[in-house]
Design brief:
This protein is α/β, with parallel strands linked by helices and about 200 residues long. Helices cover about 30% and strands about 25% of the residues.
């Protein structure tokens, strides 16, 4: 996938601060420290578009990034990480309504990528999020990151186990090796109703 441009558009800590959607949107959600920022950076072939940090819970706002391929344009939406206890109770409580409101009401949203660290598997927070998405409009898929941390002989088994637990399609991905990038891009374009001929 050839990326012509990828730029930061807007950040918001409240839904009212968000600009109206201009293009199809793909949201990325996951527990803190599952490699969400690295995943997005790898997809758009930029090292520092989305800030990465060794400190979990770095993303506190909804951030929108506009991605241009050959002819197609779509927006990636980076949702706040969840499940990190060292944020203040008030701040953690605000993330639930922010994420839920976006997933429920955002008219441009086409799909939600739920990111799981393949070594840790599906957590209760992930199950709750998938259940919520299932009750709303957008479709969901799971990306199992850090695939390079699992021996190749065990990768297929771990992905199959995760898919059974999640009940939605699961894609393996490594930001270190780039494995899974092209397949995931094809899936995201399909979810955004963009033909690969356009992209």
């Amino acid at each position: 996938m050839e990326i012509h441009d990828a730029t930061f558009i807007s950040g918001a800590t409240h839904l009212k601060q968000m600009p109206p959607p201009s293009f199809a949107e793909i949201a990325f959600a996951g527990r803190s420290n599952v490699g969400k920022s690295s995943l997005i950076n790898t997809l758009v072939a930029r090292k520092r578009l989305v800030r990465t940090s060794s400190k979990p819970g770095c993303t506190r706002a909804i951030n929108i990034f506009r991605v241009r391929t050959r002819e197609a344009v779509l927006d990636f939406v980076d949702l706040p990480g969840y499940g990190y206890a060292q944020r203040s109770k008030a701040e953690r409580a605000s993330w639930g309504p922010l994420i839920e409101g976006f997933l429920r009401d955002r008219p441009g949203l086409r799909s939600v990528v739920v990111i799981i660290d393949i070594r840790r598997g599906l957590q209760d927070d992930d199950r709750q999020l998938l259940k919520f998405i299932d009750s709303t409009r957008p479709s969901a898929l799971v990306v199992a990151t850090k695939l390079d941390k699992v021996p190749k002989s065990k990768q297929r088994f771990e992905l199959s186990k995760l898919q059974k637990a999640a009940g939605v399609p699961v894609y393996g991905f490594s930001s270190v090796t780039g494995v899974g990038r092209d397949e995931l891009w094809r899936t995201l374009l399909r979810e955004a109703s963009i033909s690969q001929g356009e992209a």
